[in-house]
Design a protein that fits this description.
Layout: E1 8-13, H1 17-28, E2 32-38, H2 46-49, H3 62-80, H4 85-88, E3 90-92, E4 94-99, E5 116-118, E6 130-134, E7 138-140, H5 142-155, E8 159-162, E9 177-180, H6 186-189, E10 196-205, E11 211-215, E12 223-227, E13 232-235, E14 239-240, H7 249-262, E15 273-283, E16 288-294, E17 299-305, H8 311-329, H9 345-350
The structure holds flavin-adenine dinucleotide.
Amino acid sequence: MTQSNQKTKVIIIGCGCIGLSTGILLLKTQRYDVEIWAKDLPPNTTSNKAAALWYPFLSEPMDKVGRWSQETMDYFKQHILPLDVRDTGTLYKKVNEFFRVPKAENPDWSPFVPSFRRIKPDELLPGYVDGYAVDDGFVMDTDIYMDWLVQSFKKLGGRVDQRVVVDIREPFIYSDIVINCTGIGSRELIGDRHVYPSRGQIIVINHSRDRSLIDEEDDTKIAYVIPRVTNSVLGGTNQKHNYNLEPCPKDTKEILDRVATISPEFARDKIEIIGEKVGLRPSRYEIRLESELQQDGRKLLVHNYGHGGSGFTVSWGCANEVLKMVGEQLPKLKCSTSPSSPSCPIVRSKL
Ligand SMILES: Cc1cc2nc3c(=O)[nH]c(=O)nc-3n(C[C@H](O)[C@H](O)[C@H](O)COP(=O)(O)OP(=O)(O)OC[C@H]3O[C@@H](n4cnc5c(N)ncnc54)[C@H](O)[C@@H]3O)c2cc1C
């Protein structure tokens, strides 16, 4: 039996930032043989359309989101931010969120982020009276970062297969452990009507600066500027139950109007638009991160979807949680006649 035969096979459905982060952490343990099955691969996933900065936003439950965000920040600082930005597309940029009326409270996630602080008066932009700051915030240029995730996954021995899953029972023919990272696809694949799209449109401009700026006081009229490696992203929209994947001129106009009110530096005549993108955030009343035993306890299905506007922000924390769930549930799986059964070493060694 080769070393790889001794590993437990895992199939992940979905090749966005959630499926890839989960796959990488599973592979790093050297206990699992991991295959990703996905309908769309980067650059054609929702994840590729994201802004994307580390900042808890539009996802619940906030206590868990806070912990997963902090774990994700730690993972980036330890494993990704020290690498060459040209490879990972990831770089430190402080974040400032602004308010036009004073905020009585700090955000629910602030206890998890040691560097969180209230903004200083000299950091405020005109028209704003209060704000939050995270000085060790960071951004991911999704064009580069998503490629880096795919390459990292493959270098660790992971395989990617482009295929549509129409029935969740299908991957269980090949593996006793399946991880569902299908984002908005979970609505169809497992019939979860709690998942719905929150349409996000962004504009890419050829202009960068030193910090990310956010105004999301009204979550239907959000405005942000996110500087990346060679460009910046202006946003955005948060249109619930809207499936339109085409950029809409009305949204473009309104985003530019809103961003110009954050700072006149981004007025139309001062920027050059180099691209527009639309993605559907996989929104849910809360992120679904849970395991279910299937087929009389012989198979394990783990769900990791519904990350709303914080998929990147919680990605490594959620992946770590999946790792723990799989490790805990693995010994409980009952023997099956499947060649991939993890709990029947004698059967496997005969094959
Ligand atoms: C405009 C915009 C800005 C954003 N900004 C930020 C930000 O600044 N910070 C942040 O943290 N987050 C941000 N987000 C949110 C973030 O992009 C999402 O939370 C994240 O991409 C979700 O990742 P995912 O891997 O779950 O989904 P996806 O990237 O959608 O990946 C899902 C995968 O599942 C596959 N799949 C689905 N159904 C099936 C099926 N039946 N069979 C096979 N494969 C299937 C898909 O093909 C795809 O490969 C933003 C989103 C948008 C749209």
